[in-house]
Design goal:
With about 950 residues, the chain is mainly beta. Helix content is about 10%, strand content about 60%. Pfam families: CarbopepD_reg_2, Plug, TonB_dep_Rec_b-barrel.
Length: about 950
């Protein structure tokens, strides 16, 4: 196969690169003694703290004793430690991009086991004209680039300063700027993150190094990142090649959200006051942010407090459709035929008021340069109050005239319906994270670090949904415009509201998704020497206890004893949607409809079967226990750093759920039985990382790692979720296996003295037992006519991709052009997958080959043009995702795709003085729709737009 041949050639390139690096090791150690020494009693430890000229700690500073080939880098607080420094005179070199190199000669006499160099202040570099190369808001991202440059593995580090330079309100929005990242949206905001063409559950999301449990209603493992406001972060780390001391269930990448600690001995206050506007709903918004930090007791004790409040209006104008292959006409009619027709069509605009509250507080105490403890607390709350109006046209399997295949139903056929309903819904999502960690130096014996973490994520949904229905009519479907099908009826006026009879009232009180995660970890790091080369061995373990609960308390009333139609509770005309293509008419007023229920509660007929079905089929209670241990070694051979090790993880899952027994007779009672089950698996995960330092600005990196992806907990539960209204059946699969993945990475990177980087690399992933949601139409049995959704394991998949990244201030240009800057990245991914299935008609096993991997977009890119000069700063950014296979099926006619999409954003700010800055931001200026289609572009099953929005206000800093 040509594609496989290309893959093999590209993998061979990676292996050749690794081989060249290994040859370099052999050459450099040709004359060295291969004797490992763990510790020498006379060796010393050198510590210190590196600061900028503004007294801010500098992370990622390279600290090096060249004659000994001994080096390290500073942490986020600017501290460094050099172990195993022998007695004698040594020259310490301290280098940092954007600053002049600092050198200091030290004398190690052996009279003490630690030498503290104290605070070391670096001087900013200047060009030929004496202008400072790195200034203002660029300093934060320069720190991030230095951490990225000195890291052991392939990662992207994005500082809070860079995040704030784009109009990104939450972490999901900020993540779309990173190379290889695509996002799914909720109410127009970035929410779910996917990395390097892999699905959501292939990426882990952590806060301060520990994963946060998800409250995703569909059972996904990664928490939606719209919950967390971007202003709470110090930085985002996206590791695209994991190391043995990291959780092993990251295939696409591991996202670590780092919250800040206090950095200044002087009290600092910063924040924002602002407002905004949403074009789609013509409503305003409010923004308030505040952060305080200060260090006390000679900088040993730090306190940081931050809080933010956003009240925004967002939402969507949207329709959903379902296409089925139906027979047009009677089966005994020789002129009848089968075709893909609209089975169900739902117009559903939603207006949403979103309140986001974020609070973070940090206390830390530094006993010495090598010993500290940190306590961090983070709280996020996202409250969505939405009103969703919906008109639903349901032709179903009622296209009866082969001469007019767009006509469905008859006066005598009650199965063809039009419904109008309103859903008044409140969703509260919150996350609480408490993290306590410590790190203590043990002199030449190394160090110990530990941590205790507790996280609770919770999603509570309450809603009232009132449905009115007109049955027994004829529907005419006009599909001339592929994006906007139009329904009409020759015998019914859709705005004759007296004809819509009460159908049902469903009340969720409430739906609960809750995840509790308790983690404890302990690691030891021990230095050693191999000949004249310095290294360290790190061993450790972790235990994680995750509990995930999903519970639904829903009641449904499906009848009313007396006359009751839509005209009695109308809300008024809601206008048109989707650029005027659809007139919505009027809907139930939720307050009037609820009052009608309260006033006439005895006349409403409780549907006990629907109530039990909605509640019990949704329930599960799962527990997942993970035990992990690892060992890794790191050693420097002159310019080459080698990190190798292995991680072992064992997972035990237990769950409770209900299995439903649905009788064929509607008059019989639905029953349910509690079922219990378990699933366990383990993995050995070997990993190798190579980093060759060409010079202080440039590195070549390579990695061979093994990782895996866990099944979603919901997918393991063998329960059935039955939706009679939508004719959908969702089933679990207790036999699901985790995905086993081999990852290969090769990267070149070069950093500029002025803020910026250029990098390029390739990656390859070989995936066994990947999981996808299979979609099939049920042809026989009690659920004939339903569409079944079931998670299954595929056979194998491969992904090969290339990434390039360029970011640079164009300060070498003359005059006012020197304020220009470019931020751009591009990722291209090719993939193929295969999966086997049983053909229901023949009973034979069949295989689909050469299918794109689910969710993988061939091309993803970002480009931003900035202008920063003097007090003025501005930026225009464009994001692009090409079309992708959204969800494959064993039947190619049911494959679902997501269309390409562009997003254009812009922002500007002006610094009034040293303390005040005004800003303006504009988001989604193109208002490009999100489009999902089935099989081909003429069968759109989801079309939504969000409108553009703006924010403006005042930033302050004291």
């Amino acid at each position: 196969m040509n594609r496989n041949t290309r893959f093999c050639k590209k993998v061979l390139m990676l292996l050749i690169g690794f081989g060249l690096m290994q040859s370099a090791i052999a050459v450099e150690n040709k004359s060295k003694e291969d004797i490992i020494t763990i510790v020498q009693q006379d060796d010393m430890v050198i510590t210190g703290k590196v600061l900028s000229d503004t007294q801010d700690p500098l992370p990622g500073v390279n600290v090096f004793i060249r004659a000994l080939n001994l080096g390290n880098s500073t942490n986020w607080d600017g501290y460094f430690t050099l172990d195993q420094v022998p007695i004698g005179t040594h020259t310490v070199e301290i280098s940092y991009l954007g600053f002049d190199t600092f050198t200091k000669i030290i004398e190690v006499t052996g009279s003490t086991n630690m030498i503290n160099l104290g605070d070391i202040v670096l001087t900013p570099s200047t060009n030929e004209l004496g202008e400072v190369l790195v200034t203002g808001s660029a300093e934060g991202q320069q720190r991030a680039y230095n951490l990225q440059r000195t890291s052991d593995n392939i990662k992207t580090v994005v500082s809070a300063d860079l995040v704030n330079r784009f109009p990104d309100i939450n972490v999901g929005e900020a993540m779309q700027r990173v190379s290889g990242v695509t996002i799914d949206r909720d109410n127009g905001e970035g929410a779910v993150v996917k990395i390097r063409g892999t699905p959501q559950n292939f990426t882990t999301v952590s806060i301060n190094g520990e994963q946060i449990p998800s409250t995703d209603e569909s059972g996904g493992r990664s928490e939606s990142l719209d919950l967390i406001s971007a202003d709470q972060l110090a930085a985002m780390e996206i590791s695209k090649a994991i190391t043995p001391d990291m959780d092993g269930d990251a295939v696409g990448g591991a996202i670590n959200l780092i919250t800040p600690t206090a950095r200044s001995s002087k009290a600092r206050f910063k924040g924002s006051i602002g407002g905004g506007y949403n074009d789609l709903f013509e409503r305003g918004s409010q923004i308030y942010k505040l952060k305080y930090d200060q260090r006390f007791a000679e900088d040993k004790f730090g306190v940081l407090f931050g809080a933010s409040y956003y009240n925004t209006v967002n939402g969507e104008e949207r329709y959903e459709a379902s296409y089925r292959n139906r027979r047009i006409g009677d089966s005994d009619d020789p002129n009848s035929f089968t075709a893909d027709v609209i089975d169900d069509f739902r117009l559903r605009p939603k207006e949403n008021e979103r309140q986001r509250i974020g609070v973070n507080i940090t206390f830390d105490y530094k006993f010495s340069p090598t010993s500290k403890i940190v306590l961090k607390g983070i709280y996020n709350d996202l409250r969505d109050e939405s009103l969703r109006r919906r008109t639903r046209f349901r032709p179903r399997n009622n296209y009866q005239d082969p001469s007019n295949p767009n006509l469905a139903g008859s006066i005598d056929n009650g199965d063809v319906r039009v419904r109008r309903d309103i859903n008044d819904r409140v969703i509260d999502r919150e996350n609480i994270t408490l993290n306590f960690e410590g790190e203590h130096g043990l002199g030449n014996f190394g160090k110990i670090d530990y941590g205790f973490n507790y996280t609770r994520s919770e999603r509570i949904l309450r809603s009232d949904r009132f449905v009115f229905r007109k049955s027994g009519l004829i529907l005419d479907v006009n599909r001339d415009n592929r994006d906007f099908p139009v329904f009409s009826s020759p015998d019914f006026d859709f705005e004759n509201y007296e004809e819509y009879e009460f159908n049902s009232f469903q009340q969720d009180k409430p739906i609960l998704n809750r995840g509790d995660n308790l983690v404890t970890r302990l690691n030891f790091t021990v230095p050693f020497t191999l000949g004249n080369n310095f290294g360290e061995i790190k061993i450790g373990g972790k235990y994680r206890d995750l509990d995930n609960l999903r519970r639904r308390n829903t009641v449904e009333y499906s009848g009313f004893n007396g006359p009751y139609n839509l005209s009695q509770v109308l809300d008024g005309n809601s206008g048109s949607i989707l650029d005027g293509n659809y007139e919505m008419g009027q809907f139930p007023d939720p307050n009037r409809a609820l009052q009608h229920f309260l006033d006439n509660i005895d006349a409403y007929e409780l549907d006990e079967n629907a109530t039990k079905l909605n509640s019990d089929s949704f329930f599960y209670d799962a527990s997942e226990n993970v035990t992990a241990t690892f060992i890794q070694g790191k050693i420097d051979f002159n310019k080459l750093r080698v990190l190798a090790g292995v991680r072992y993880e064992k997972t035990d899952v237990t769950y409770d759920a209900f299995r439903l027994d649905v009788p064929a007779n509607d008059n019989e009672q639905i029953t349910s039985n509690l079922i219990q089950g378990n699933n366990d698996y383990d993995f050995f995960l070997p990993m190798l990382h190579l980093k060759y330092k060409i010079n202080d600005q440039s590195n070549i990196r390579g990695a061979i790692t093994r990782s895996y992806a866990r099944p979603n907990l919901q997918d393991l539960v063998p329960a059935e979720n039955i939706n009679f209204a939508d004719q959908e059946l969702r089933t679990g699969n207790p036999d699901l296996k985790p995905s086993d993945v081999l990852n290969l990475d090769l990267l070149y990177e070069n950093y500029f003295e002025s803020v910026g980087v250029i990098s390029g690399g390739i990656f390859y992933k070989d995936i066994s037992d990947f999981i996808f949601l299979d979609v099939t139409d049920v042809d026989a049995g009690e659920f004939a006519g339903f569409r079944r959704f079931s998670p299954v394991n595929g056979d194998e998949a491969t992904l090969f991709g290339a990434e390039i990244n360029f970011s640079r201030q164009l300060d070498f240009l003359p005059g006012v052009l020197s304020g220009l800057g470019i931020y751009a990245n591009y990722t291209h991914v090719q993939s193929e997958s295969s999966f086997s299935f049983i053909n229901d008609d023949t009973g034979e096993t069949e295989t689909r080959d050469d299918v794109d991997f689910a969710g993988q977009a061939d091309n993803v890119w970002n480009v931003a043009l900035s202008y920063d000069l003097g007090k003025f700063s501005s930026r225009v950014s464009l994001n692009y995702n090409s079309s992708a296979l959204f969800a494959p099926s064993t039947d190619p006619n049911l494959d679902r795709f997501i269309d390409e999409r562009y997003q254009l954003d812009a922002n500007a700010s002006y610094k009034l003085n040293d303390h005040l800055t005004i800003f303006a931001e504009f988001v989604n200026l193109l208002d490009d729709p999100t489009v999902i289609y089935q099989s081909n572009r003429s069968q759109v099953i989801d079309y939504e737009i969000y409108g553009w929005s703006s924010r403006f206000g005042l930033n302050f800093n004291f």
